[in-house]
Design a protein that fits this description.
heterodimer, A: eight-stranded mixed sheet, globular, B: 201 residues, mainly alpha, 8 helices
Chain lengths: 495, 201
């Protein structure tokens, strides 16, 4: 007798796996692998198990942090980090154009160089609260970097919103299965449209927790198994509606049903009122608890200095950590108000450079605590040329410092700009990445002919990042090619 | 081998039983005009076209249409909107839209505002004893969201079977104690999520 099994719409949508494990099998695989590497509360694991759907993308605790900082506007990019070639040929004109103090103050972080007296460089070198200078130097010794120079030159006008924000999920596997977007408002790269994510406008631990919680709290209203039963019920109803409306035969129908259905199962974990809080409150994360309340660090001379986390920094630390530990996909931050030309160096430019450098510090600390590889993409949609630097008095984590801050002069994305990337490897072997494009003695850049557009450059940065953390580069390449990226990965990538 | 969900299995068995028990001269889905069972909507239209994703405002509007007594400007529904709306779909392109996974979260907030009494569901008693009322509540929600399709269309028995399977699962739950409230909200979430976001438009 022939028994014909009717495929559900879940089979049609969510079945992208080579094998077809039972729910128990893939639960055991995913969670046992995760448990071996990351410490979670028993309740969280139980909730995750209860929520796991049959046939939906398999949640996996795959280590590897991926993040992006997008400075919207046109900051003094030359006063952030630069490459060896720029440092070697640094002269007074180039230093002035970049807004840094000069070659004498350049220090190495791997193959990168920063001005130790600039807001960006001083912040990166000071490190996070809870670290001694020696501990932080050890972290920085595991860093390398690179970038595509020359394509990010449209800081004002109609061409400024060209899709410079990328995405990581599902190329990067994770337990939550989605990215975290912070204040993202600009266009995403074409290949990143539709990737699963959740957005918060203001990064605080509470706000991040809120997007991974129920309103109102489950209390007497629901529980994990009732949510899973409801997801089963909705899926069964969806199957009937699929037949009624022919949804599975219509373009995009499977995507709509699948995302809703699989997301519903995932919501069961949120019945635990502490789920989001345990993810995004550093004091609740065992690996971060040791530094979460720290208010000092030490400087290079061994002196104790004030160094406290802001609420935003705590949120970023936790979000980056969850990306590194494999709970979340990538973390994508957009900073507004980075059109530096004409802005006051002390009141505006230095604080904003410090804010972004502190975010990078949080990223590296999170990778260190998660013992995970990491890749952080750092770019803007333009650049301001500087007229040298001026002394300013600012604070970094509450520590009063005197800095040489860029005097941003005018928009000059056509002179110098870059899409940068930082790699972190806990084993101390970050990739020997390259910078594309050449720089002349004024610091102006000439682009690499193989990286003709910001679209290509962003794709290359993301493929490099995904490659470094062990994510699915093939899947990402396919998505990029489908979205019009014609160059081969070897042309676009930095190593 | 993939384990078939017992809920889907129950729905399938019930629908097969319904078909088997139908009068010999009655064909489900394409019944004759005098059978009283209308054909599925759109079956006479050529082509298939594209599905579309509901945007945030559409989702909120549909939830309000589906559930009696919920207000997007008040109660938990309003609070959930404030929390979830930025993450709901912003575009109708079904391939590019993000945030569909957030719809059940918003539906949950609205369902906690819905009153059991409004749907004739007792607040006390066992789930098993009140299963008919829970199924009827789910059918009422589906009908409100789908213009009567659930109870009047050819798939009416299938909708009822799916809801009955859900209620039976809740009644038999050994991992947590399910109350009439948690059961009602589960039925509400299933029916409303399906009516709001699983129709392909």
């Amino acid at each position: 007798m022939l028994i014909r099994l009717k495929r559900t719409h879940k089979d049609a949508i969510c079945h992208s796996h080579d094998h077809d494990p039972s729910r128990r099998t893939f639960l055991r695989r995913g969670l046992s692998a995760g448990l071996a590497t990351v410490v979670f509360s028993k309740a969280m694991i139980k909730d995750a198990m209860a929520a796991l759907p049959p046939g939906c993308p398999v949640p996996t605790l795959a280590k590897g942090a991926l993040a992006q900082i997008f400075s919207e506007g046109g900051p003094t990019m030359g006063a952030r980090f630069i490459g060896d070639d720029q440092a070697t040929s640094m002269n007074a004109t180039m230093a002035a154009n970049y807004g840094i103090s000069g070659q004498a103050n350049l220090v190495s972080i791997g193959n990168l160089r920063v001005d130790k007296t600039s807001p960006f460089g001083a912040t990166l070198l000071q490190g996070p609260p809870g670290y001694t200078s020696a501990q932080w130097q050890a972290v920085l010794s595991r860093v390398s970097g690179g970038g595509h120079r020359g394509q990010f030159n449209q800081d004002d006008g109609a061409g400024s919103d060209t899709g410079l924000l990328g995405g990581a999920s599902p190329f990067k596997s994770s337990q939550i299965g989605k990215d975290i977007r912070i204040s993202n408002a600009n266009k995403l790269a074409a290949w990143a449209n539709g990737l699963p994510s959740s957005l918060v406008k203001t990064p605080t631990p509470a706000n991040l927790a809120k997007i991974f919680s129920l309103t109102p709290a489950a209390g007497a209203f629901t529980n994990s198994s009732a949510m899973t039963a409801a997801a089963d019920g909705a899926t069964a109803l969806g199957q009937i509606l699929t037949r009624v409306f022919g949804i599975d035969k219509r373009k995009g129908g499977s995507e709509v049903l699948g995302t809703t259905s699989c997301g519903f199962y995932g919501a069961a974990a949120l019945a635990d009122p502490n789920y989001g809080l345990n993810l995004f409150t550093p004091a609740n994360v065992p690996a971060l608890a040791g530094i979460a309340a720290a208010t000092t660090s030490t400087d290079g001379a061994g002196n104790t200095i004030t160094n406290t986390f802001s609420t935003q920094e705590l949120a970023l630390l936790a979000a980056f950590y969850q990306s590194g530990a494999g709970m979340a996909g990538g973390v994508f931050i957009e900073y507004f108000g980075r059109d530096y030309h004409g802005e006051d160096p002390q009141a505006v430019i230095a604080p904003r450079d410090i804010e972004e450098a502190r975010a990078i510090v949080m990223f590296l600390a999170a990778c260190d605590k998660a013992q995970s590889r990491g890749a952080l993409i750092y770019l803007s949609n333009g650049q301001a040329i500087a007229a040298g630097a001026q002394q300013t008095a600012n604070t970094i984590g509450g520590n009063a410092v005197t800095l040489n801050s860029p005097i941003a002069d005018g928009d000059a994305g056509g002179s110098y700009n870059a899409g940068l990337i930082i790699f972190y490897d806990p084993a101390g072997s970050p990739p020997a990445a390259r910078f594309t494009g050449s720089v002349d003695l004024n610091g102006n850049v000439k682009i690499d002919s193989k990286i003709a557009s910001s679209k290509d450059a962003v794709a290359g940065l993301y493929l490099s990042a995904l490659q470094h953390i062990g994510a699915d580069v093939g899947k990402a390449t396919a998505a990029m090619q489908k979205a019009g990226i014609a160059r081969t990965p070897s042309d676009l990538m930095l190593f | 081998m993939k384990r078939t969900s017992h809920v889907l299995l129950a729905a399938l068995v019930t629908s097969l039983a319904t078909i088997a028990c139908a009068p010999a001269n009655e064909t489900v889905g394409v019944g004759p005009p005098d059978s009283g069972v209308p054909s599925e909507p759109g079956t006479d239209l050529p082509g298939l076209g594209s599905a579309s994703a509901p945007t945030a405002d559409a989702v909120i509007g549909r939830i309000r249409n589906t559930l009696t007594g919920v207000d997007p400007l008040a109660g938990n529904f309003a609070k959930a909107i404030a929390q979830v709306k930025p993450n709901l779909p912003q575009m109708t392109n079904p391939v590019q839209a993000t945030g569909l996974d957030q719809i059940p979260l918003l539906v949950y907030g609205a369902c906690t505002d819905a009153k059991l009494a409004t749907y004739g569901v007792p607040t006390t008693g066992t789930i098993t004893a009140n299963s008919a009322a829970l199924v009827a509540a789910g059918m009422k929600m589906l009908d409100a969201g789908l213009a009567g399709l659930a109870s009047q269309g050819a798939s009416s028995a299938d909708f009822q079977a799916a809801l009955q399977a859900l209620v039976s699962t809740l009644a038999a739950d050994k991992s947590a104690t399910q109350t009439m409230t948690t059961s009602f909200i589960a039925v509400c979430m299933a029916a409303t999520t399906a009516a709001v976001s699983m129709v392909g438009y």
